[in-house]
Write the structure tokens for this entry.
Amino acid sequence: MERRNFLRSSVLGAGALAFSGSLWQQAASAAPAQLAPGPYGALLAADANGIQLPAGFTSQVVARSGQTVPGTSYTWHSAPDGGACFADGTGWIYVSNAETSSGSGGGASMIRFDSAGTPTAASRILSGTNSNCAGGKTPWNTWLSCEETSTGRVWETYPFGGTAVARPAMGRFKHEAAAADPVRQVIYLTEDESNGCLYRFVLTTWGNLASGTLQVLKAGTATSGSFTWANVPDPDGSPTATRSQVSGAKRFNGGEGCHYADNTLWFTTKGDNRVWQLNLAANTYELAYDDGLVSPGPAPLTGVDNITGATSGDLYVAEDGGNMEICMITPDDKISVFLRISGQSSSEITGPAFSPAGNRLYFSSQRGTSGSSTGGITYCVTGPFRT
């Protein structure tokens, strides 16, 4: 049974419709994704940038850490990580985190592109923060940059101009990624701990992150079932960590990327190489992918990390390590390799995000060919992505 094929006409991240319980249950009863040929065909030999792609797709280098972004006077940050795209008139903006310390340029930067995809400006939008790993885009066009430290904060940044603001009501913990749900008017948050939790922040006023209620997901120990939410008594996480405050909170092994679309949240856990799926209309959860359940193997996706989606309903999951691949999970629960970066085995793929038109996929190799945070490379792949 296909999980997402009836949702393809919706634009991901926009105000999604709420579906009836019976329809949602019918769409959410599939087994974890299985290996199959990709919809774009086999990968070709590596191109000049060391990237293997299907026929019809091309890659280009957008920026390199420590070097000036072409067409601008801005030096690109080290260790590029989570990212997102924002429509900007006829062009767009790509935002990228810097997963380094405050003394080494931690924070986030942006690149502005014209309608042809040519960089026209770049600048810093957040400085002086630590280990900004992933984050998430809001419907009001701000970027939530999340600190991956034990007392990490969520910073709301303004790609179109404005001073970044810490949002302590969203909790102090080892933040990873964030995803906005305009239907329930909440922000989902992952936690990068081996016994971490999944949270949601219920805004007092939608569009204003200054106040709200932090909640944690409660469920059994199985890989599928029903769930509820419970308030976290002390979002500050001191002296008791947020993940240890609520009895029955479900544990997830190393929460990484998360993505919301059409009454569904997908998020990844690196410790067990899984992609989880929350069916929010039915309050149930299940596995969308598990490398131990791919039969016949071998499993194509290991080191699961950042995740994003296309308007087609296809999910794109980046690897931290593995074979340096971005894998694709289709709405009919098939998984395949979309691209592979060669010669960069000491790096990880970060920040996948589609341009507003859906024909360009931006991402970074955090440590590039050097294996150092100062060797990061940010790429763009252009081609006939499914819509």
About this structure: The domain at 5-382 is CATH 2.120.10.30 (Neuraminidase). Residues 352 and 363 are 4 Å apart (CA to CA). The two ends are 21 Å apart (CA to CA).
